Every structure is written in C-alpha cells, then in structure tokens.
Here is the input.
Amino acid sequence: MIEFLNNPEIWVAAAFLIFLGILLRIGAHRFMFDALDDRSARIRSTLDEARRLRHEAEEVLVEYKRRQDEAEKTAAAIVHSAGVEAERMTADAAAKVEEFVARRTKMAETKIAQAEAQAIADVRAAAADVAVAAAGEMLSGAARGAAGEALIARGIADLKAKLN
Here is the structure.
C-alpha cells in the first residue's frame, strides 16, 4: 500500500479531485453554466436576427421581382405604343406624300392645259394674222384697176346714202 502513496499519478489525481471539489464549493460550475447559457442566448438571438433578416430579404426580393415584372410590362407597353405610333406616323406620311404628289400632278396638268390653250391661241392668232395679210394682199390686188375704182365709187355712194 505504500507503493500506492509513492505513485505520482495518484497524487496528481488526488490534487485534481481536490481542485474540482474546491471549484464546486465556490460555485464555479454556476459561472460556467451561466456563461454557456449566455452564449446560448446570444447564439439564439443571432439566429433569430438572421431569420428575421432572411425573411425581410425574401420580402424585398419578392417586391423587386414584382417591380421588375411591372417595369417589363411597362417597357413592353411603351414599345407597343411606339410601334403603333410609328405605324400611324408612317401612314400619315404616306398620305401626305400621296396628297403632295396628287396636288403636284394636278398643278402640272393645269399648267400643261394652260400651255396647250396658249399654244392654240398663239397658233390661231398667227393663222388669223396670216389670213388677214393674205386677204389684204388679195383685196389690194383685186382693188386695182377699173374694178377697184368701181368699188370705191359704190362705197362712197353707200356712205352718202347712210349719212343722209
């Protein structure tokens, strides 16, 4: 049994048990449990905060997805509206071009008709001038000599009769 007391591991074990007894007597185990409880409470509050933040993040994500869908719908509506407006503007431009071409065509036709009328009037005037000149030449040729003197005498007699 003396050998038992000479063994250093026995004394270390005995000292350790005495040390544990002292720690239990002064309530060190309560400090450890309180520290563990505090740490557990902090971890629990951190987890609760993380759950709350995750829930908020999911709500924000849902809200942003809803806004994104609305923005996409609005963009699609704007694109559609722009397409309709472009088609309307194209139709208006085509109508204006057709109206412009029709107006210009009518003006050109009117100018052509006026030019034709003027040309016909010029030709008639030239023909009348030529006819008057030809008639004058013919009459001056016919009015020479005895026939011309007879015509003049008859014209003077007719004039005297009309004046009296």
